[in-house]
Amino acid sequence: MADETADAKQRMTKAIQALESDFRIIRTGRASASLFDRITVRYYDQDMPLNQVATITVPEARLVVIQPWDLTLLGEIERAIQKSDLSFNPSNDGKVIRIAIPQLTAERRQEIAKLARSAGERARVAIRSARREANEAIKKAQKGGQTSEDDARRMTAEIQKMTDAQITKVGELVERKEQEILSI
Known about the structure:
Shape: elongated
Structural class: alpha+beta
Order of helices and strands: HEEEEHEEHH
Strand order of the largest sheet: 3-4-6-5
Largest sheet: 4 strands, antiparallel
Distance between the termini: 48 Å
């Protein structure tokens, strides 16, 4: 029965990690190398993550500089950025690519904050789903005589305690991301 508790904890932790990953790519108006984590570039007939073929630096709050290790990739990197859903317009000077991050409008900030809240809600749903499945497994084990009523009650309470802690953490992450988005 400890398996259900451990499995639920693992699934809840993965939901938090997925939320943090989603938040890394949500644009806040500040320059960040993590904005480019999902961009891939064709290199020697393979799709490679951008950060594996170039150095991505953030010298200023609204500027990203990408310096490829192989200068022949400049055009390919520029096209990949233009095709992405980031809506950036890179400028290529023959050695590096510079990307000026435009200021976000108040309306766009609200839209992005709404995306952050919906990502948080998806994480909450995943956490509650893990709780529900663990509780169902505990009830099934209790009906099958594999665990006592007291043990089942104790494990259910433990899972509820984990759920509450993870939901609170999601709330804190969402609130912090919203403040980051709206305060710029």
